[in-house]
Amino acid sequence: MITPSYKVRIFVASDPVDFRKGHDGLAALVQSHLRQMPFDGSVYVFRAKRADRLKLIYWDGSGLVMAYKRLEDNSSTWPTIKNGVMRLEPARFDALFAGLDWRRVQPLKVAAPAAAE
After folding, report:
1. How far apart are CA 59 and CA 87, in angstroms?
2. d(CA 14, CA 70)
3. Fewer CB within 10 Å, N or C, the chain?
4. CB burial class (10 A; 0-12, 13-18, 19+) of residue 81?
5. Whole-number Å distance between alpha carbons of 97 and 95
């Protein structure tokens, strides 16, 4: 499973995409429809018409990585998004990727320590 760190930005596209699209097609959608930069290290998540399949792409510094997941027994609860894209916290992304209801996940807001003991 892909587990992005808390510093990685995760963007979720609202509209279903044609799942025949590959790396280049999804990168073009990120640039043209989501108005983001596909090679900035952020994770971009897309869904199929049925919410039982997810694709995500991200630039890892040496190439464009694409992951695909098909949920067997159910479909994901897909975020209702305005303006085509929303940002999602890593904990909520983990729930979405697992097919869980991501809206029930409340990430903890913990301040980093000022100094080590």
Report:
1. 17
2. 18
3. C
4. middle
5. 5
Give residue limits of the domains in the chain: 10-104
pLDDT profile of the chain (117 residues), mean per 10: 69 89 94 92 89 89 92 71 78 82 79 83
Give the E-state strand segments of 1-117 in sequence order: 10-13, 43-47, 53-59, 64-70, 85-88
Q: Whole-structure pTM over 0.90, yes or no?
A: no
Q: What is the pLDDT at residue 95?
A: 83
Q: Which amino acid is it at 81?
A: I
Assess contact for 64 and 39: CB atoms under 8 A: yes
Question: Identity (one letter) of the amino acid at 51?
Answer: A
Cα(24)–Cα(57) distance, rounded to whole angstroms? 10
Q: What is the pLDDT of residue 71?
A: 81
Rounded-to-integer distance, Cα 66 and Cα 81, Å: 22
Distances (CA, A) of 99 to 12, 76, 80, 95: 15, 5, 16, 6
- Distance linking the first and last C-alpha atoms of the chain: 33
The 3-state DSSP class for residue 91 equals helix
